[in-house]
Amino acid sequence: MKVxxxxxxxxxxxxxxxxxxxxxxxxxxxxxxxELIQLPEVNMNPCKLCEGETCLACLEKGSCVFTKDDFxxxxxxxxxxxxxxxxxxxxxxDISAKMKNFIDRxxxxxxxxxxxxxxKPGAAVxxxxxxxxxxxxxxxxxxxxxxxxLVVGSTYWNMVYGKDVGDVxxxxxxxxxxxxxxxxxxxLLKRLHV
Length: 194
Prior knowledge:
Layout (H helix, E strand, L loop, with lengths): L1 E6 L7 H15 L3 E6 L19 H4 L9 H10 L2 E7 L7 H13 L11 E8 L4 H14 L3 E2 L7 E3 L10 H21 L2
Parallel strand pairs: 1-2, 1-3, 3-4, 4-5, 4-6
Helix pairs in contact: 1-6
Keywords: Flavoprotein, FMN
Protein name: Flavodoxin family protein
GO molecular function: oxidoreductase activity
């Protein structure tokens, strides 16, 4: 089994990546492979449909036909994966622009093949400084529900507080929630793959 994590921060290896890796630690304890994709390293344009064109060729092909960026590589990895962790910092009281662009592309491309995301466990995590964490997690959860994913929860909201890189490690309750998400996702994956 393999879970893909998407770091939607503009900062590679920042607080959002720390949260995803914490979820991954629990998955590793359960023998589940992981891969972290950091969107700051990814060349990804907006969906052509979002630019006013009427492409929608992905509906017929079952994947994005726009291959002049890196999205199709990520899409193929997600298609082969067993679970997905979406992580975003809070920018302007919601998810980052990089994450919004990513879920827009993923949502449209997966319309042509519902099985890409349907019934796949997914979890949302958010690194937040002050406010907006609930909105960010809610945005990601709504995306996953819209794509018929099985949303993995925790004992509290899936957000952790911190400003500078590493500050999230000082939020004991938030980090405990990240570990719990990993445990819950591992439990669900094992039940689905019996």
